[in-house]
What does this fold into?
Amino acid sequence: MTSSGTNPPSGGAQQSTSVSAAWELLLPAAAAPARGRGRALQEALREAIRSGRLVPGTRLPSSRELAADLRVSRGLVTEAYEQLTAEGYVRSDRGAGTWVSGAVRGAAREAHDLAPRAPGASVDFRPGTPDLSLFPRSAWAAAHRAALGRLPHSSLGYPDPRGLPELREALASLLARRRGVVADPERLVVCSGVAQATTLLGFVLHGRGLRTVGVEDPGSPEHALLFASAGLTTVSLPLDEEGLAPAALTHSGVNAVVTTPAHQFPTGIVYSATRRRALLDWARATDGLIVEDDYDGDFRYDRTPVGALQGLDPEHVAYTGSVSKSLAPGLRLGWLLAPATMTDEIVTRKRTMDLGNPAVDQAVLADFVTRGGYDRQLRRCQRAYRERRDALTAALAKHFPGTEVSGIAAGLHIIARLPERYGPEPVFLQRAAGRGIALRPLSDCGTTRATDRTVNLVLGYAHLAPPDIARGVRLLAQAQGDNRRTEL
It folds into this structure.
């Protein structure tokens, strides 16, 4: 194998060193099929330079020498050198040969996973995650085949930023039937989940001159982060046993507020009829906007779910929802129904954000909804989640007697208030973490902090099978018992 220098010429004698190991990287490319051999050789050289096997200042063999070593035509090597010279990977000095350029900086090759998980947790009771094993793979695959088979070529172009017409029609029908929403397909915008719907609203409100938005306290911390990305700040508004406190809302001076009236997160209460009317009266009197986050409105286990607030006044309520709890958050499919006066601005902003959601995914969901697959999936999830909620409350009653479980029988989480003997909360959480139990305290969801020794937890159960729930609560109890004995 040919030797070559590692420093560019400077008028003196050239040092030389063997770099045969680097040229060995090119052998598989040289053995590639004839039609793709030139492209393979170019990519192999790029990779050798990017990876640092060929460092800046390394002199490459002449095209004749390298062609002889690799047993390929000289023209193939010449073409590769010319292409890499044009791209900046190598440089050629007339009469002095070809050298690896100093312009190349290798990038880190390792891909990190930033998905929200609890590393090392043996049982994760944090809320918000459905059971992803319930995802209807076979039915979804069938819908995918059906959608691809009927999807016209034109639908694979840039879509209507609102979404495919067939999906908007299917979702409008579904939401009107299941959630009592006033759903005009022309005003429905398909989004990448409630997160994008909230961000879209934030940008539009900011464009209209608003700078603050009210949020429930306690409530989802995500709302503040999403509005902040649109340049808005949030004002925390207290709740009582019926919902958002009207006096605090009025005195806050905000003109928009985010609510979860069907199943408040995290407390689990349902806004009373009186409080729903008061909220709508505020919006009409101030020409304000209510953002309704219907994150798990389909999951009620003791009775028919309360209908969406939007159905009472679609011109003052922006309704958001998604399939994240019913199918999978990884699908990134949701919807936004806003007042007619905001729709054009929302669609314009949606177009500039991403030009619309993937057409094939939308077509698959449309097929899944219209053929009844979505209703069947909801029934399946409701049965499983009701069983798991019962398993969690039974395990708490057994291992933590005296625990108060608040909130309606709905959704994917409960609020558990443990007796004082298990406090204070920071010590309880530390003991749980020592046993590999991931928990979320209620204090993470608002500005109010507990003043007594009680432990208040937001416990998710949907993603855990009943045996795992029982095991997790048992381990949690053992962690508290072990440490209490140690203290004694």
About this structure: The longest strand covers residues 233-240. The longest helix spans residues 373-399. The chain is about 40% helix and 15% strand. The radius of gyration is 30 Å.
